């Protein structure tokens, strides 16, 4: 499974880790079932997101706008102000095998999580 993550600028590692833990718990998914993390290239310099991925021991891939915009998110997104259809849902769908959301995006403070298989 792929976990898509969107964040607000300046997000901290604890914020990301708390959001990941909450989403996994709500979805009933074990951390080891997450193959990798996915986000937008807009987030590739977010220190809190990068350090959280390292702490989780997960690779994170940052996808360009054209890849993210190939996928229609099920939920509306504030990412539209950056020319994106979304971040968490489209990023998760783009790298998943079945292209099916198993956990629709949910916002946890300044972090948004979606999971696809």
TrEMBL record:
InterPro entries in alphabetical order: CbiG_hydrolase, CobE/GbiG_C, CobE/GbiG_C_sf
Domain CobE/GbiG C-terminal: 2-116
Coiled coil region boundaries: none
GO BP annotations listed: cobalamin biosynthetic process
Domain of life from the UniProt record: Archaea
Protein name as it appears in the record: CobE/GbiG C-terminal domain-containing protein
